Amino acid sequence: MSSKLKLGVIGTGNIFRGAHLPVWLGHSEVEIVALCDVAMDKAQAIANQHGISHVYNDYKEMLANEQLDIVDICTSNAYHAQAAICAIEAGAHVLCEKPDATNSADAEAMAAASIRHDRILMAIRNNRFTSTSSFLRKYVDAGHMGDIYTGRCGWIRRRGIPGKGGWFTTKELSGGGPLIDLGVHFIDLAMWLMGNPKPVAVSGATYCKFAESSLSDSIHSQFGEKNSEGTFDVEDLATGFVRFDNGATLQIEFSWASNIEEEMNFLELRGTKAGFSLRNGDAKLFTEIEETLCMVVPQLKKQADFGHASQINHFIDVVRKRSQPIVTPEQGVDMIKLLAGIYESARLGREIQLT
Ligand SMILES: NC(=O)c1ccc[n+]([C@@H]2O[C@H](COP(=O)([O-])OP(=O)(O)OC[C@H]3O[C@@H](n4cnc5c(N)ncnc54)[C@H](O)[C@@H]3O)[C@@H](O)[C@H]2O)c1
C-alpha cells in the first residue's frame, strides 16, 4: 500500500458532496484519484473543482483502470451491493453508504465477498459516531443502565418525502421508504447501544397515504431529485416491533409524511438501573440518585456534522490496522434481514421469525 491511500468514488450526488467529499479532501492519508457517476457531468464538475484527474461513468471501468486501495460508494441504494462486491473483488476496501443493500441476499453476498477477499467492508452508520452516541455507549458499557430490556426509536417527519417520483420512492431502486431510509439510522443506534443483540422476530405495518399529495413543507424533501412522471411504490410510514435473542424488544416508527404534532428523531432505552432518551440529538438520563428519580442532562459539546467525519476517520484507522471495526458486515446482514422481515410482516399481516 502506498503512503497515501488511493480512493475511488462511486456516486457523486448529495451525500457525497455534502458529507463525504469535505472529509476526504481534508484527510492527510487519502488521495482522491477517480470519481465515477452515471451522470458523468456531476463527477466531472467536482473533479474540475478539486483537480481530480480521472472521471468515469462506469465503475467497472474505473476499478479495472485504477489501482484503488479504497472505494467509497454513495449511489442510490440498489447499486450498493454490486458496486461493493466488484470493488472488493478488485482488491479495494469499501466504505458504503447506508442501507448496506436492498435485500438480505445482497447483504449476505457483500459480507461473504469481504471475508473471501479479506477486504474491509464498512457501511455508514454515522449516528453511532456523534459525541452524544459515544457518551451514551460509555454510559451503557460502564454498567450504569443495568440490563437494557426494552426501547423505542423512530424518525418521524410531518412532510419530508425525498425526491418524490425519483429513486427514493421507487422500490426497485431504494428497497423501500422511510423504514429502509431512516430506520437504518435509529434501529442501528438502538441495537448498538443495546449491545448488538440478534433480532429473532419482527412484526410491522406499512402505509402509503401521501403519494398523491403535493404538500412538501419540510426541509428534508430537499434530498433526491423529483420526477413528476416517476414512481411512488414505497411506504411513507412504517411501524413495527422487534424481538431480540436476549428477550429485549424495540418499538419502531418511521415516516416521511404523517399528520403529527412535531417532526423528530428519537431513541429511548430502558434499563433496570437507568434509562435515557435521545431526542433530536439531545440526551437525558433517568436514574435514581439518593433514592430519588432524577433527570440528568449531559452537557455535551455540539458537533458540526452528523458523524460522517468521525466514521470516515475510523474507516481509515481500520484500513491502516490501527483500530478494530466498530461497524461490521455481520451487523449489516442482521439489519437488512430485520428490515426485510418487517416489510414481509407488513405484506403478510403476521410476525416473521428471522432465525
Ligand atoms: N448517512 C446519511 O445520513 C445519508 C443521508 C442521505 C443519503 N444517504 C445515502 O446515500 C446514498 C446516496 O444518496 P443521495 O441523497 O446522495 O442521492 P443522490 O441521488 O443525490 O446521489 C446518488 C448518485 O449516484 C449516482 N449513481 C446512481 N447509480 C450509479 C451507478 N450505478 N454508478 C455510479 N453512479 C451512480 C447518481 O447519478 C447520483 O449522482 C443513498 O444510499 C442514501 O441512502 C445517506
From TrEMBL:
Pfam families given in the database record: GFO_IDH_MocA, GFO_IDH_MocA_C3
GO MF term set: nucleotide binding
Chain coiled-coil ranges: none
Location of the Gfo/Idh/MocA-like oxidoreductase N-terminal domain: 6-122
Annotated ranges, domain GFO/IDH/MocA-like oxidoreductase: 136-276
Organism for this UniProt entry: Paenibacillus roseopurpureus
Identification of the protein by name: Gfo/Idh/MocA family oxidoreductase
